[in-house]
Amino acid sequence: MRRRCSTRPTTTDDGRGVDTESCTEGDGTYTFTGGALPRPCAYRQAVRVRVREWDPRAASAQEIRSLVETVNAVLAADLPDDPLWVDGQVRDYLAETMPGERRISWVAEDDRLPEGESEIFAHISMLLLGDIGVLEVIVKPQLRRRGLGRQLLAVAARRAYLEGFSTIGVEAIGNTPAIPFYESLGFEREYAETRSVLTLSKVDWE
Questions:
Q1: CA distances from 169 to 11, 24, 180 (A)
Q2: Which helix (H) or strand (E) segment is 156 a member of?
Q3: How far from each other are the two terminal CA atoms of the chain, in whole angstroms?
Q4: Element (H, E) at 105
């Protein structure tokens, strides 16, 4: 969730620079093939996944808890040494912006349950600052490679274009699945940052 490594900008090209053929759009929901949901019954039927704009400030405690579970599943898979997130951290992070910035978020959730009570499978946020929209995408590891991340990115890219932005960027952690994912969509590396970490439990405070 934190913006801490390489930014990769690309033009939106009227939203057409992102491949959306992997999913079928209809009435604000997107259809994915059977097996997309991490439940036994899902492997025998098509699954409806609802993608909608989402406000973390107004989100229910259940939604925040579900998003935290998704964030922590991603951390466990991609960055196992990173500390896990808790409910309040995620809500505060997504709700706070600096002066002149604006953040828009979307979630992909189980369409069988009502909004506010559904399980969140994936999330994308777009921070609008200056002349660029900076994206962060997370998808539950067991749901990757099904087109869900691409569809979320396409939704955000179209919104950026409609908001008057000509460029979108992402910030991703090196040596994680995010790098080949963004590169497959045409993002190009602009710069890399180095993160230094101090483990407080190993500090001699005497």
A1: 9, 25, 15
A2: helix 148-162
A3: 34
A4: strand 102-110
Coil, helix or strand at residue 43? helix
Report if pTM > 0.90.
Answer: no
Residue-level length of the chain = 206
CA torsion, points 182, 187, 189, 191, in degrees to nearest 10? -90
CA-CA distances (angstroms) from residue 160 to 25, 39, 104, 128, 129?
Answer: 19, 34, 10, 8, 11
Q: What is the pLDDT of residues 138-166, one digit of tens each?
A: 999 999 988 899 999 999 999 999 999 98
Bridging pattern class, strands 24-26 and 120-129 = unpaired
Instruction: Kindly report, residue by residue over 38-84, the tens digit of the pLDDT.
Output: 443 343 455 688 999 999 999 999 999 999 999 999 999 999 988 89
Output b/e per residue, 157-175; b: 16+ Cβ within 10 A.
bbbbbeeebeebbbbbbee
Task: Tell me the one-letter amino acid at 144.
Answer: R
Owner of token pair 């409609």: 162
* Strand 102-110 versus strand 120-129 pairing type: antiparallel
Cβ(5)–Cβ(171) under 8 Å?
yes
- Residue labelled with tokens 């939203």: 15
**Two tokens, residue 103:** 């953040």
Residue 68 parent element (H or E) = helix 61-78
Exposed e or buried b per residue across 95-108, where buried means at least 16 C-beta atoms within 10 angstroms of its C-beta: eeeeeeeebbbbbb
